[in-house]
Amino acid sequence: MAATEISVLSEQFTKIKELELMPEKGLKEEEKDEVCREKDHQSPSELEAACTSGAPQDSVLEEEVEPVPATSEESEKHILTLQTVHFTSEAVELQDMSLLSIQQQDGVQVVVQQAGPGLLWLEEGPRQSLQQYVAISIQQELYSLQEMEMLQFHAVEENVMVANEDSKLAVSLAESAGLIKEGQEKNQLAERTKEPLSFVETMSGDERSDEIVLTISNLNGEEQEDQPTAGQADVEKAKSTKNQRKTKGAKRTFHCDVCMFTSSRMSSFNRHMKTHTNEKPHLCHLCLKTFRTVTLLRNHVNTHTGTRPYKCNDCNMAFVTSGELVRHRRYKHTHEKPFKCSMCKYASVEASKLKRHVRSHTGERPFQCCQCSYASRDTYKLKRHMRTHSGEKPYECHICHTRFTQSGTMKIHILQKHSENVPKYQCPHCATIIARKSDLRVHMRNLHAYSAAELKCRYCSAVFHERYALIQHQKTHKNEKRFKCEHCSYACKQERHMTAHIRTHTGEKPFTCLSCNKCFRQKQLLNVHFRKYHDANFIPTVYRCCKCGKGFSRWSNMHRHSEKCGSGEAKSAASGKGRRTRKRKQTMLREAMKGQKEAAKGWKEAANGDEAAAEEASIPKREQFPGEMLPGACGETTARVKEDVDEGVTCEMLLNMMDNSAGCTGSMILASAQLLGRPQETDNQGGWRRGNRDATW
DNA sequence: GTGATTATCGCCCTCTGCTGGCTCGTT
DNA sequence: AAACGAGCCAGCAGAGGGCGATAATCAC
């Protein structure tokens, strides 16, 4: 706290008037502004007080009160102008704790309380919670107290410079009151309490008016950085209130009534006052823009001429002002960062950057969006955020003209969409390559993060703590023939297959032909037998080579022959493989392709199937997979049909079964027709053409 | 009083990371 | 066909760097 000079005549007391509250931003937390809120209740008239009992009868209080902004945007600083009240010291009994109570017109009291020898307290305001004490010594010192209670002493020591002709005496109020030790710092005091702390700055007022300007600052409050300045200055007021206050015979102090500016130099003060006016006498002859100072004009003209006299020795940058060059060198070359964060290792070149950084520690968000609850820590983020409300997308891709709200988003877009050498990010834990780093992070979080909960395999008892490991493990169960025969090497994927297989070891044949008593292991085999030997309408299939026309009772024999003949049988299968590689864009096509896959797998599996059952049915396995599925055939149905075939059930058996089944679908018929190699006998909907069937069967 | 220096404000930028919708492949 | 998973992608915000401009202060 800068000491200020005051001039208080001996044997004079002063009364307080509240001169002005400095308007501030409305973003301050209310708890910081208790003092101000209290003051808000005070109207100018409230501050007009009259001496009550105990006050000298011959004293006349001259009260000048200026309006207090009645907003919640309280100031952390208050200017109290003390005007001398000319009553004599004899009129005041300097007894301990005597009071000079000043009754204000509307009932609000300003209590002038004598704290002790040499001290005068001024208790202000109607509420005891606000106790702005100003202790004034009879010996010309002026002090302040926020709290004077012994046990919760919150007053802040403030050196009050006494602008005396003979001496400037800085006396700590607390020291004077004997309540705190000499030299105790106000910061230490601040740490001792969480209650708002205030201190008083005293500034010498106009000599003739004997005004003393007190600035009460809330020590717990934050700095006034980034707070809006006072409202637009009233130029006339500024001119009329050139408070070139000075102390009696001492160093003059010039105080701006528009803002808090003070200066001991007239030139500085005058230069400052020009900031409150629109006076810009210096004209640029190139663009007719005007400036306040010659220096500003010169810098501006340099922007026209491109003159940048301050050149960096380490790079080709040049600047208009020397300050810019110094700062540039700190950023780019010397890396000198004088502003260091006390809470982390951050350091910055500029103080404003440190202030901005500190908000990341404090969580302060002074910049509130007017349309939503968002608040940002700096102006740019708020401005950027406002685009979400306006829909503005100022950044456009020069290639595809897509627009973006942020330049970074556009940059990523161009890099990923329009660049050739797109960077890829390899997952360190697996082979996955991901285009964006952030997505790689998501990948690692989802798949490679340790899971405290046990991730159990759905097929076995294995347990994992990483999702990726679980997935990889479960893939090992895919196509796994989990049912293994205890008596041989046979294995299959379905339990019913194993049941049928076990009968080959036990010899069990539960299905008996009613006509000849022949027994079979599977019902389907019995059905085939019955139709072949006991059904008069049964016509055996003859497979003919498409090249030479030779007939065969078994498809496998025909196929083996046709390969030697150069038949296109094998060729058609190869062309189907090519189609499998095409991208499936439509559901029908996908299903068709799936059916082809299943058919191909079924073919392979059939080659390793139950030869005994096949022999028993007298139909070779390969006859069951003559070619590809047509588009539209249900893959699942094909798989089911294939599985039955795998058990030794022939296509004819299946068709019979389906023919007698109410649940028979077109796709099932079509699948069976495919398996029989006679898709031409189905209609467009997969239905069996009864006539053809009858002719064949 | 004036120029130089320093401090401050404000703006824009980049880098970074998270989020959720979308798309596509798999189940 | 639907559910689900995973990568792609744009939107959005946090944090900090850099600089233009101007006011305040210092030195002469």
TrEMBL record:
Cross-referenced SUPFAM superfamilies: beta-beta-alpha zinc fingers (SSF57667)
Domain C2H2-type: 254-281, 282-309, 310-338, 339-366, 367-394, 395-423, 425-453, 455-482, 483-510, 511-534, 543-571
Swiss-Prot/TrEMBL keywords: Activator, DNA-binding, Metal-binding, Nucleus, Repeat, Repressor, Transcription, Transcription regulation, Zinc, Zinc-finger
Biased composition (Basic residues): 577-587
Keyword Nucleus: yes
Residue runs in coiled coils: none
Localisation per UniProt entry: Nucleus
Family statement drawn from the similarity comment of this UniProt entry: Belongs to the CTCF zinc-finger protein family.
Record protein name field: CCCTC-binding factor
Gene source species: Rhinopithecus roxellana (Golden snub-nosed monkey)
Lineage of producing organism: Eukaryota, Metazoa, Chordata, Craniata, Vertebrata
Gene: CTCFL
